[in-house]
Each structure stands twice: as structure tokens, then as C-alpha cells.
Amino acid sequence: MRALMGLIKDRHGTYYAQRKVPERLQEAVARVLNSEKPKQVFLKKSLGTKVLKEANVAATHVLADFNRTLASAEALLKQRPGVASITDAQIKLMAEHYYASLLAADEEERQEGAGSEPIFQSVAAQLAAAGLEFNTPFKVGDLPEAGLSDREVFKREHALAESLPDARSALSKGDITHVRSDAQELLEEFQLNLDGKSQSYRRLGMAVLTARVKALRDIARRNAGDPVETPPFTVGPVSAPASGGTLREALEGGRRSASVPRTAFTSTPVPSTCS
User: What does the pLDDT look like over 23-77, one tens digit per residue?
Assistant: First the structure.
């Protein structure tokens, strides 16, 4: 029996299905798969067997999935044709959006809590009810009526103490890979398919990296008790005349209109943690 096209063996003899992604689709496929990599050169999946007959059967389904992924990438390119450059005004607007998004996420967390305190208190209550001894430097008992607990403040400050030096180091070296995922998310939000090798992409990366350092510094100021306002936010597509508004209004408006950027970004500077 002959192996289907696209079947390969690893060094242990297990069969894999593999397909080379056409170069023009590699960035789009990475977006379809939500990959952290800027490009997806190969689609590859283990078939979980060393038997050729079983591998051929399993491969038909996996290769069909590959075809659907490539079709989705094709559709994505048709929706957003590639561009080789964007204007300085677009870059500035996107960097301002990113900066304001980080501050808005921080502001909301300060007002509403990070979300991990109820879990911490619940675990502490269960341990106490079971008669198990445990040590914690944090207060056990009632939840704060508003804002952050002392434990959440400590966790946020610890995270910031790591993320701010990392961002500054990246900025000092011009290492835009530090914010690659955020830059890509910005392009998604503003419906732009910018060439990742272009000069505009590098300028956007530096603008986003600069905005990240600025936002983290301002969050540190908030941690010290200094008032830092979440700035006004420009609502609308990057090519349209802007109208003023707060970022919170922009985020709320985004729920009503898909054309309005509305994401507060995944790499927030003070991620919620529970321990």
C-alpha cells in the first residue's frame, strides 16, 4: 500500500500529515490559527499511528482540515488586501489606541478588582473548613467592597516589576518582536493587512513598543498613588475623520459596531493571577 501524498514519518516511525503553506498565505494562515508565529510555513499534525493503512484513513480527515484552513486564509486575504505601507498618521493613531487600551484595562481592574480574590478566599475557606493549616501573608476573610485587595496589589506590582524592565530593554535595542502579537492585533482591529517586512511595519512596531513603555510607566505612577487619566480616544476607522471620546466609550461602542476598535489587548501589563 502506498502512502497518501503529504504523509511523513518521524524518527520514531509515527506517521504525520504535512502540507507546505504557499508563501503568499503564510501570514494569513498564522492569523487563522491564532499562532504566535508571524508566519505558518507548514501545516503538520500527528496521525497517532505507525500503521500505514490506519495513517492513510486518518490522513484524509486531517488533510481536509488543512484545506479548510487554507481556504479560510484565502478568504482573509480577499477581505483585507495586503498593503506595503501605512501613513504616519495611521501609526500614531494605532499607538495611541494601544496606550489608551492598556490604561483603560488597568483602570477597570483597579475599580472592579482583578477577579482572582474570590477564588483565593474560597480556597482559604475550604482549607480552614477541612482543618488544614496553611500560611499566607495576605488577609483571609471578607472580600474588599471595592477595588483591589492587598494580595492583588502585591501581585500586580510584582508583574509590573518584571514587565516594565523587559519593555525598556526591548525599546533600548529596538526589538519590536517584544510587541509583535500586540502590533498584529492592532492591525486586525484596524482591518489592515500590512506587510510584516515593510518599513511601515517596523515603524509601527517601534511606536507600539514606545507606547507600551509609556503606559507601564504611567501604571507605575498610579501604583504610587498619582492620578493618571485614561486619555481621550479617537473613534472610527484609521482612514476616517476622527471624533472624540473616551476609550471606555470606544469599547462600548465597539460592541454595537464591528468597525470600531474595541480590544483592550491580550498582553496587559498587570495580568490577573491567583496564588
Answer: 878 888 988 898 888 888 899 999 999 898 898 899 889 999 999 999 998 887 7
- Work out the average pLDDT over 105-128: 82
In what helix (H) or strand (E) does residue 23 lie, and over which residues does it extend? none
The residues spanned by each domain of the chain are 7-79, 84-256
Nine-digit cell string for 112? 472592579
* Helices assigned H by DSSP within the chain: 26-32, 52-79, 88-112, 117-129, 150-173, 180-189, 199-223, 247-256
Mean pLDDT of 232-256: 44
Q: How do 15-20 and 7-9 pair as beta strands?
A: antiparallel
CA distance 239 to 261: 13
235 burial via Cβ count (<10 Å: 0-12, 13-18, 19+): buried
Report long-range pairs for 237-241 (Cβ below 8 Å, ≥24 apart): 237/190, 237/191, 238/86, 238/89, 238/90, 238/93, 238/94, 238/190, 238/192, 239/90
> Which of 183, 216, 106, 85 lies closest to 152 in space, CA to CA?
106
Q: DSSP for 240-259?
A: SPPB--BHHHHHHHHHH-TT
| Contact partners, residue 203, CB within 8 Å, separation at least 6 | 88, 91
